[in-house]
Amino acid sequence: MDRPLFVVGDVHGHLAELTRALHASDLVDADGDWCGGDAELWFLGDFVDRGPDGIGVIEFVMRLAEQSEGRVDALIGNHEVLLLGMHRFGDRNVPGAPTPRSFARSWLLNGGMRSDQDRLTDAHIDWLTSRQVLTEVDGHLLMHSDTLAYLEWGDTIDEVNEAVWDVLKGDDLDHWWECWRKMTTRYAFRGPDGAAVADELLEVLGGREVVHGHSVIADQLGVAPEQIDGPLRYADGRVLAVDAGLYSGGPCLVVELDHDY
Ligand SMILES: [Mn+2]
């Protein structure tokens, strides 16, 4: 339990910045190989889109997971659902949608990279579709999106993960679309009720604090991403935001989590 525990938020294709940040935290060596020893490192999803080398980031994280013998792992973010949905369904219209919707359109609007689609292999797909969307580590509830929509899949971490795996291993476009839509919602813990909302989520799923990516810290503070140099604790201390907006000029934060949670 005393091993160091780190999280990294939304990388969005910025492989070089990620490698430098992990090296600066002594988790990878100058060649980009794992040297973190007992440390545990969780990525909170959104490896792809909006940046040059999303597949490179996925391959790097897959390699670290192997080199670290599982101490490095990752959650699925909404952009992984988008990447895979685009790959699987392309411009097919979502049958149950009231107005025309497709993964192709959303993918284009949300920074999808053709080069990532072209390089996506079955090995990447198998690895991504077997990652969790939620996990709890030492009292930290790790999640990609700052939303309560996860609870629509179940009342426990296992139920939620199983439900999402069922969707991602299946061929139901409506279900896939709902998965993307739910995980794209945000800001559940902001505002005067934020702490109560976080408590509600922690009460159901467990953990003593929420740690999330997905929503850029600078937007919450109303400053430029360049001004961010650490994670943001908010909602009366119950929530930690770690996405510093790498794709919009912010730093790649490698955040060490406390043990007294
Ligand atoms: Mn996201």
Written overview of the protein:
- This is Calcineurin-like phosphoesterase domain-containing protein.
- GO terms for molecular function: hydrolase activity.
- It comes from Saccharothrix ecbatanensis.
- It holds the Pfam family Metallophos.
- This protein is α/β, with parallel strands linked by helices.
- The chain has one domain: Purple Acid Phosphatase, chain A, domain 2 (4-Layer Sandwich), CATH 3.60.21.
- It has helices at about 15-25, 55-65, 80-90, 105-110, 115-120, 120-130, 155-170, 175-185, 195-205, 215-220, and strands spanning about 5-10, 40-45, 70-75, 135, 140-145, 210, 230-235, 240, 255.
- Helix 1 links the parallel strand 1 (about 5-10) and strand 2.
- Helix 3 (about 80-90) packs across helix 4 (about 105-110) and helix 3 (about 80-90) packs antiparallel against helix 8 (about 175-185).
- The protein is globular and about 50 Å long.
- The mean pLDDT is about 95.
- Manganese (II) ion binds next to helix 3.
- Manganese (II) ion binds near residues 77, 78 and 144.
CATH superfamily: Metallo-dependent phosphatases
Tally of alpha and pi helices = 10
Rounded Rg: 17 Å
Q: Sheet bearing the most strands, described?
A: 5 strands, mixed
CATH class: Alpha Beta
Low-confidence stretches: none
Strands of the largest sheet, in order across it? 4-5-6-8-7
> What small ligands are held by the chains?
manganese (II) ion
SS-based class: alpha/beta
User: What distance lies between the first and last C-alpha atoms, to the nearest angstrom?
Assistant: 12 Å
Strand content: 5-15%
Could you say which overall geometry the principal axes of the C-alpha atoms support? Answer: globular
Write down the oligomeric state.
single chain
Give the total of beta strands.
Answer: 9
- How would you state the average pLDDT, rounded? 97
Summarize the helix and strand pattern as letters. EHEHEHHHHEEHHHEHEEE
CATH architecture: 4-Layer Sandwich
Any idea of the CATH topology?
A: Purple Acid Phosphatase, chain A, domain 2
